[in-house]
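Onboarding guide, step 5: your first structure request.
Type a short instruction followed by the sequence, for example:

Predict the 3D structure of this protein.
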Amino acid sequence: MATSPRILLVDDEPDLLDLMELTLVKMGLETDRALSVAEAQERLSKVHYDLCLTDMRLTDGEGLDVIASASALPRPVPVAVITAFGNAGNAVAALKAGAFDYLSKPVALNQLRTLIKSALKIPEPAQSDDPTRQLIGESAVMQDIRTRITKLARTQAPVHISGESGSGKELAARLIHQLGNRAEGAFVAVNCGAIPETLMESEFFGYRKGAFTGADADRNGFFQAADGGTLFLDEVADLPLSMQVKLLRVLQEKKVRKIGATLEEPVDVRIISATHQNLSTLVETGHFRQDLYYRLNVIDLVMPSLRDRSGDIPEMARFLLNKLGGNQVKLDKEAEKSLRAYAFPGNVRELENTLERALALCEGQLITADDLSLAPSLPPDSDTPGTKYPLQDYLDQMERVAILEALEQTRFNKTAAARVLGVTFRSLRYRLERLGIE
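The system replies with structure tokens like these:
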């Protein structure tokens, strides 16, 4: 007979433990309790739990210590944390440390039940048919991206994906959704730059019948459509400031109010955002709210440009040719060389368009360099917009590639990699953390 899922509750307030325990027992779950970090660590070492729910502030430490212990187990245990109301800093720290999700005090029982149900659906890591193989390429940077996507899929933390247009931001977002516990829910992709400002509120939050002229029936918005799933906000930097305020409230309260409604409706949505612009720069110039930036950018994922992984271009070209129906068509050596030398400011999207044009122009089953019709490559010191701007993004990409190559060269010995790079071990460790390289 199958056993019920077992949950470990960690808190130094017996009354709160009683309340949570009663709620979980009614859901048919088994529970254990711990009053301190030490007691929680002892229980985790002896019993396998399906989920651990811990307070952030305990008598002998913090919830981060419990997260670290649960994550280090041979079979890692997902951890959700309870934070003081309004303390977003604690919640962000917990999510970055690997927490599955968080609740604010005082704990709302309906949110607790939703979190538990969501957590218990976390899938085990796939042993084969890895969906991340949809991201073509065996370069060190792409292997790192695939690893990060797999890890990000196991949390509920908001993820912000940055990278140039055509670099695969939406594909990465879909993979995070597909590999996570929300895979059975909807994936709703929204291009924030394509919605007129006057329609944004009704499109995002929905409206009631009669709320305005033309509102002939109740209608759900993007948040209701993504309930139980993932809402992907593409080009989030294009949101006007007035809409940013409303979006921030929804992310904080996890509730939406339709236009014309008097009551708010709870929504259970994971947010993944993306943009090709530098959000931190927009914050500095006052074009993007700082508080919303910190809500969206809990964990960042930087998609590399195609020119930063030119070694992947031949494999990517073969994949795209098959996709375009050119299964028997091949690139000659000069064509392949031309592709690797080209900057591809439009990234994978531009490569696909280039190959589609070449398929139409080539004679026989061989694509030549002339068939590609590529513009001459610009010199390395060219100041062409879109290739080296924003400067910080470009420098981060270059730094990431150099570090990953050094790590690969030294078989991921960080001390040796630091020597290869000519930096101190402490400096390398800081750069790894800043760039999010595991």
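Each response can be followed by summary notes, for example: The chain is about 45% helix and 15% strand.
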